[in-house]
Amino acid sequence: MGTAGTHSGKQRTISVGILSAPQVEFCFGRDYAATEQDGRVVIDGEARDQWYFSGSAGGFFTLKNVQIGKGFHWQRYQDQCFPGDLELIAREGCVIAINVVGIEDYLQCVIASEMSPTAGFEFLKAHAVISRSWLLAQLDKRDEVREGYSSLECDTPGELVRWQDREDHEWFDFCADDHCQRYQGIPQGNPAMVRKTKRVTEATWGQVLWYDGRVCDARFSKCCGGALEEFRYCWENKEVPYLKYARDYKRPAIAGGIAATGAQMDLREEKAARKWILGTPRAFCNTRSKRLLVQVLKDYDSETKDFYRWKVEYTAEELREIILERTGDDYGEILELIPVERGVSGRICRLEIVGTKKRRIIGKELEIRKTLSRSHLYSSAFVVEKTPDGFILLGAGWGHGVGLCQIGAAAMGERGYDYRTILQHYYPNSSLENIY
Question: Would the N or C end of the chain have less CB density within 10 A of its end CB?
Fold first, then answer.
């Protein structure tokens, strides 16, 4: 890690919350243990309101037992190394470990956390641009005064519709997990990945996606399932011109470039959505190539075998228990799961749960995914089949499907598309700009 190279090395710094626990163990030149006591951080018997360990250029520190994948089925703990400085504060009975780090050094770790060293260079460059764009867009949002902003659209006995976007963190700029971006530090024992991510950030230094005088809020997910969703069906009910519907496939033009596909089905319609989800349409992300998937799926992600099309089965009692655990609402015996409204990718954004004790419409997509699974359902693009004992959900994709599809983008890179073309495919109407 470090910033020596083509660029000056001057970077805007951000703060990333890595770990919160009653005791934090770390190595910064030597081993330490920090504990919380009466609202202060105690190290070696000395209590302070704040501890700050400043790393030298190119140095790093190690945090032990860092939780990753919180709330997801791949949740686990790792020892992780980070560039930059370490700040320790005490809040709510815990020690919070915060990494103060330059944006470009942060991005090197994000790329290594999301992808593997076998990933194609053009794909990694595209991801560096969108990760940088997303981060800077969030900082811009935080600095705005947004009067009347609310993530709750409807909360009545008959309907709950809300979205769950990245909330501002109180003690730091970003967290280190999927809630913001995966940030798992320097790849330990993998110098090839360190060299590669450094080349990627050098090649895209300061590049962002740009629209209408602002940095783009460049969303991404693991697998779109063949169709990109629009922003308004997952978050605020507004049009975002660079986060639009598209098929995750382009037919090669006869003479250079890429050409759009022909007429498309309207996947907001139930009949069309069912046909789409139960089929296996051609798409960049429709692949089982182990050589390609290893570029995108880390070891714990690889535990998810089916993602383009998937199947989940529940007994009626099991589904009742899951919904009760996740929401606190007892619907009684679950009788029906009825799609009320779908987005342009076929993802359900309003779903009616019908039980013997109550019925209610819920949305948007993440609310649905969290309600119907003890971790997170792969996506809300699914159809429901009733069985004598319960329900089968047959679904498409992994994640919200808005913006770049990581598996699709990796496939585009493998087929020879450069990173500019990849970005234009997933973020139409945007431009690529250098802002520093």
Answer: C
Within its chain, how far is the Cα of 48 from the centroid?
35
Could you tell me if 185 and 80 are in contact, meaning their C-beta atoms sit under 8 angstroms apart? yes
Query: What are φ and ψ of residue 346, in 5° steps?
Result: 90, -5
The closest of 136, 128, 122 to 435, measured between CA atoms, is 136
Q: Tell me, letter by letter, the H, E, C secondary structure of 251-320.
A: EECCCCCEECCCCCCCCCCHHHHHHHHHCCCCCCCCCCCHHHHHHHCCCCHHHCCCCCEEEEEEEHHHHH
Range of weakest confidence among 45-54, 111-120, 237-246: 111-120
Cβ–Cβ under 8 Å, residues 247 and 264? yes
What are the residues whose beta carbons fall under 8 Å from the beta carbon of 360, sequence distance 6 or more? 157, 158, 159, 160, 329, 331, 352, 353
Tell me how many domains the chain contains: 1
Tokens linked to 134? 């997303």
Question: Please, what sign has the CA dihedral across residues 238, 243, 248, 251?
Answer: positive
Structural domain of 201: 13-141+154-205
Cβ 324 vs Cβ 332: under 8 Å: no
Query: pTM for the complete prediction?
Result: 0.89
Kind and range of the H or E run holding 70: none
Cα gap 309→305, rounded to integer Å: 10
CA–CA distance from 171 to each of 17, 33, 57, 136 (Å)?
Answer: 8, 21, 25, 18
Residue 134 lies in a domain: yes
For residue 241, tell me if it sits in a domain.
Answer: no
- List pLDDT tens digits, range 304-337: 568 899 999 999 999 999 999 999 999 999 999 9
Q: pLDDT, tens digit, for every residue of 102-157?
A: 999 999 999 988 887 678 999 999 999 999 999 999 998 876 645 545 688 999 99
Question: Is 103 a member of any domain?
Answer: yes
Q: pLDDT exceeding 90 applies to what percent of the chain?
A: 72
Q: Is residue 191 part of a domain?
A: yes
DSSP assignment of 375-397, as one string? S--S-S-EEEEE-SSEEEEEEE-
